[in-house]
Design brief:
There is one protein chain. The protein is of the alpha/beta class. The protein folds into two domains: 179 residues, 3-Layer(aba) Sandwich (Rossmann fold); 106 residues, N-(1-d-carboxylethyl)-l-norvaline Dehydrogenase, domain 2 (Orthogonal Bundle), CATH 1.10.1040. An eight-stranded mixed beta sheet has the order 3-2-1-4-5-6-7-8, sandwiched between helices. A hairpin with an 8-residue loop joins strand 6 and strand 7. The radius of gyration is 19 Å and the shape is globular.
Length: 296
């Protein structure tokens, strides 16, 4: 594989594009929004500068990485002559099905179609195409250039050859791929999201505050980041979406989102991306506990 298309220039999309480009692949970054593409390239540039500051890479590697990325505003142009497409759009089933129907129509028959979904069924996504054997999950972790894990998810019809190819490819990106089966939430989020949800329930029930809950998990369980801070980092809207997918998939009340999480998302308090979640990330204030109004 030499040429890869990434659909979506958001946090995960630009991180995936960065990772492939830094590993020497020619990358087509695709987003219908020009502003998102510009923002995505800016983020990649800033992240490369951070790696230079930490003496992880050189200026030459930065220049080569950026030179490996081209941007497109249409899927048809962006996926032309690519060996692999990685979809990294919003965690929305209808949107992903629409994208994969389009990919099926415009991509070469030999192109492997991957999705970075963190919870949605690969089998269901693959069913939107006429090549389910070539559809697979590549669930990268955020921040993509730094985190080593990639969950490789086989759909019901994903071929052995495609699975082996993607496992090998992930290693060329200096990642550690782990093959898992296709169930809601896979492994990472099936374990992580109930923990985050229970942490929010603990806050909602007044057992302890944000700082106290995160401190217990960091100092007592050796977690590098508390679950509420991690939820802010992931995005509370993303956490809610994943919990809803698992609740719908398993029909088990233990996956039902906490009312506090629902209220915060409805109020636009999404975490780092919105400037406030369980902590405040505005420039004028240091991180602090969530506003009491959301605990009512």
């Amino acid at each position: 594989m030499k040429k890869v298309a990434v659909i979506g220039a958001g946090t995960m999309g630009n991180g995936i594009a960065h990772t492939f480009a830094q590993s020497g692949f020619k990358v087509h970054l695709v987003d219908i929004n020009e502003t998102s593409l510009h923002s995505g390239i800016e983020t990649i540039t800033k992240n490369l500068d951070r790696l230079i500051a930490k003496e992880k890479i050189t200026e030459t590697i930065k220049s080569q990485t950026l030179a490996n990325i081209r941007t497109f505003t249409t899927i048809k142009e962006g996926v032309e002559n690519t060996d692999l497409v990685v979809e990294a759009a919003t965690e929305n089933l209808d949107l992903k099905l629409k994208i994969f129907k389009t990919l099926n129509d415009v991509c070469s028959k030999s192109t492997i179609l991957a999705t970075n979904t963190s919870s949605i069924s690969i089998t269901q996504i693959a069913a939107a195409t006429s090549r389910p054997e070539k559809v697979i999950g590549m669930h990268f972790m955020n921040p993509v250039p730094i985190m080593k894990l990639v969950e490789i998810i086989r759909g019901y019809n994903t071929s052995e050859a495609v699975t082996k190819t993607i496992m090998k490819l992930s290693k060329t990106l200096e990642k550690d791929p782990v093959e898992v089966n296709d169930y809601p939430g896979f492994v990472a989020n099936r374990i992580l999201m109930p923990m985050i949800n229970e942490s929010i329930e603990t806050l909602y029930n007044g057992v302890a505050g944000v700082y106290e809950i995160d401190t217990v998990m960091k100092l007592g369980m050796a977690h590098p980041m508390g679950p509420l801070q991690l939820a802010d980092f992931i995005g509370l809207d993303v956490c809610l979406s994943i919990l809803n997918v698992m609740y719908d998939g398993f029909k088990n009340p233990k996956y039902a989102p906490c009312p506090l999480l629902v209220n915060m998302v409805q109020a636009g308090k999404l975490g780092v991306k919105s400037g406030e979640g369980f902590y405040d990330y505005s420039k004028s204030r240091k991180a602090e506990k969530v506003s009491k109004q959301f605990l009512k």
